[in-house]
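Throughout this chapter, every protein is written as a compact record of paired, labelled lines. An example of such a record is reproduced below:
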Amino acid sequence: MKYLKKPASTGRGLTLTEILIVIGLIAFLAILITTYLRSQILKSYDARRKAEAKRIGQAVEEYEKDKNCYPLPNLVICSPGNGLTPYIDKIPCDPVTGASYFYEHEDAACPKWYRIYTKLDNEADPDYLNGIGPNSAFNFVYASSNAPLVVEAESQTTPPPGGGGEPQTDFYGCFSGVCTLIQWDPNRPGPICDPNFQNPTCYGQCSNPNNECQPWNN
């Protein structure tokens, strides 16, 4: 009885060098994909920030039409977020930090202008402004048409304290009914608690226990 002879294999295994090349290519592609996806996620967050700042601004404008003043900061915070009802159902928080968007206004009990600041991740965004707002901590602003112009940090010949486009500002919060100086948190960026005010009187808002300054990351 004759047995068929198994043909000899003509193939060869991958060498160590070839395996390392394949692994390197896979790792490189994985890095490219991860970088691209992260970039898209950051852009989506920035788009959301810009849209939400505009939504808050529109609610603030509707408030002004009824009250003849723009609101004070204790009404423009995202927790509990009902300060501008019925003009907006819920004031949104930053999608990443969960903090309120920074609301600045004319230093008056009845403000006549406002600005809403946030910090974008994408420096290539067409609306990106370098080092604007209090402590030069922001790079995007939505403001009333009559608000003073903001100044970018790089356009200054002599940077103010803090190194950016606008001077440092003191902030105050209500603690047990007393308006008290509070610190700035660069990680937010912004004051360490909400609501906060840019006036040592807190515009008389400390008599209301609901205006006690609460840590923004709680």
The radius of gyration is 27 Å.
